[in-house]
Amino acid sequence: MQNILIVEDEKKVxxxxxxxxxGAGYAVxxxxxxxxxxxxxxxxxxxxxxxxxMLPGTSGIEFAKEVRGGGWSGFILMLTALSTTNDKxxxxxxxxxxxLTKPFEFDELLAxxxxxxxxKADNKSSLKNGTLVMDLLSRxxxxxxxxxxxxxxxxxxxEFFMRHLDKVVDRNAIARQVWGTEFDPDSNVIDVxxxxxxxxxxNPFPRKIxxxxxxxxxxxxxxx
Length: 224
Known about the structure:
Distance between the termini: 35 Å
Structural class: alpha/beta
Strand content: 15-25%
CATH class of the largest domain: Alpha Beta
CATH topology of the largest domain: Rossmann fold
CATH architecture of the largest domain: 3-Layer(aba) Sandwich
Order of helices and strands: EHEHEHEHEHEEEEHHHEE
Number of strands: 11
C-alpha cells in the first residue's frame, strides 16, 4: 500500500497527517472537501482513503457511500470524533474498512495502515466452504447458489472466518484482524456484527455453521 488520499477539513490535522505519512514513505494527496477529493480520485489511483466523518457539505459517511457506490474498491479508514457503537456501525456500513477515534496517536494510524496492507497482500481470488462462496474480486457472496448481500464490514468479518475455518477465534483476534484495533470489552460492536452476519449466511439455511463457543469466541464450521 503506497498511495494515500487524506480527506480532512481541519488544516492542522491534515498537515500533520500528510507530513507524517510522507515521512513514513507513502505517496500522499490531500483534500479539504469532498469536492476536491472527487477530482483527485478521478485522476489518481489510491490504495487508501483516510476520511474524516465531519466534512463540509457532504459528510464523510455519505461520501464513503458515494465512493463505494461508484465502484471504488480500495480501503477506507475513517477518522471520527464520535465514539459510540452506533456511530462506528454507521461508518462501517457506509463502506469503511476501519475507523480511528480522534484524538489519536500517529503511531496507531500507521499500525492501522499496516494492518490493512497485510489484508491486501493475503488476498486470494475466492474462498469456499461447501456451497458458501466468496468472490474477493467482485466482493460477492452466495450460499447454495443464492446471492447474499453483505455490508463492507460484514464482508470483511466473513472473510476472516473463511480464512480460519474450524478454528475458534476470540473477540481479541476478531478486533485486531477485522477492525485493526484492540478489543474493547465495553463495546458490543463485534457481537452486533456477528448477529448481522449470522442472520444472512446462516438463518435462511437448514445447516447452521457460524457457532458461538461459550467463553471462548466463535467458529465457522467446515461443511466439506
